[in-house]
């Protein structure tokens, strides 16, 4: 049997110490130099052990501050497959929506950013999550003439489902845009993330059978909690 590499052993020991509360959130872990002296390991081994904890989302490494415990358990990562139309809809069904606000679109809100007349839209703001973990913040525009009530939205798996149930309008085409962003202070605070940390921004535009836009959404996902997954099969040559 192959022995577990030393750096993985050190990482497991530190992970256990974080889990049992020896090191609490906000505490500093031993420095690389201290780990080397305590465990008689090389600087390279200590660095690799801390790298594993960083990749797991348990610690953050801050210049001139050291390695700080960020979480007692690894953060939940939501994996969104990208295979087709139904995969796009599945995210909204699996990532539970908590509505924070829902009403007429503000003049300086999401509608204005998209070049739409705010007077013809309602805007919803909310959080998406799995269990108790928040995986993203979302803004949604719903065209006023097909806007369901908040109660109707809460009764259905998705806002699109609520629109279809009440008005018979279904998405025939969904356009999606994915880009990188940096979380500002307000958004980072709502997500429980560090200001300036990386995130994914996704925008989706739902069009009916006539090509008319009736629903648009924008979601911000911290990079350590959300993954887009795609699989490709090699095509056979003739």
UniProtKB/TrEMBL annotation:
InterPro entries according to UniProt: Bact_HTH_transcr_reg (IPR050679), Chorismate_lyase_/UTRA_dom_sf (IPR028978), Tscrpt_reg_HTH_GntR (IPR000524), UTRA (IPR011663), WH-like_DNA-bd_sf (IPR036388), WH_DNA-bd_sf (IPR036390)
A single GO BP: negative regulation of DNA-templated transcription
Annotated ranges, domain HTH gntR-type: 4-72
Signal peptide: none
SMART domains: HTH_GNTR (SM00345), UTRA (SM00866)
Domain of life: Bacteria
PROSITE patterns noted in UniProt: HTH_GNTR
Keywords: DNA-binding, Transcription, Transcription regulation
Record GO terms (molecular function): DNA binding; DNA-binding transcription factor activity
One Pfam family in the UniProt entry: GntR
Protein name per its UniProtKB record: HTH gntR-type domain-containing protein
Taxonomic classification: Bacteria, Pseudomonadati, Pseudomonadota, Alphaproteobacteria, Rhodospirillales
């Amino acid at each position: 049997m192959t022995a577990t590499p030393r750096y993985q052993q050190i990482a497991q020991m530190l992970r256990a110490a974080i889990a049992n509360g020896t090191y609490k959130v906000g505490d500093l872990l031993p420095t690389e130099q201290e780990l080397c002296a305590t465990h008689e390991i090389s600087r390279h081994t200590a660095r690799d052990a801390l790298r594993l904890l960083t990749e797991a989302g348990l610690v953050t490494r801050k210049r001139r501050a050291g390695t700080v415990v960020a979480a007692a358990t690894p953060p939940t990562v939501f994996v969104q497959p990208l295979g087709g139309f139904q995969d796009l809809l599945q995210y909204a069904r699996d990532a539970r929506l908590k509505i924070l606000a829902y009403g007429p679109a503000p003049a300086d809100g999401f509608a204005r950013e998209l070049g739409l007349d705010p007077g013809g839209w309602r805007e919803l703001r909310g959080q998406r999550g799995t269990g108790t973990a928040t995986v993203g913040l979302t803004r949604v525009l719903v065209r006023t003439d097909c806007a369901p009530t908040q109660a109707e939205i809460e009764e259905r798996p998705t806002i699109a489902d609520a629109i279809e149930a009440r008005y018979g309008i279904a998405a025939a085409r969904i356009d999606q845009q994915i880009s990188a962003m940096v979380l500002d202070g307000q958004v980072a605070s709502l997500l429980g993330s560090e200001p300036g940390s990386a995130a994914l921004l996704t925008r989706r535009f739902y069009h009916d059978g006539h090509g008319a836009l009736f629903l648009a959404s924008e979601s911000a996902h911290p990079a350590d909690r959300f993954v887009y997954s795609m699989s490709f099969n090699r095509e056979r040559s003739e």
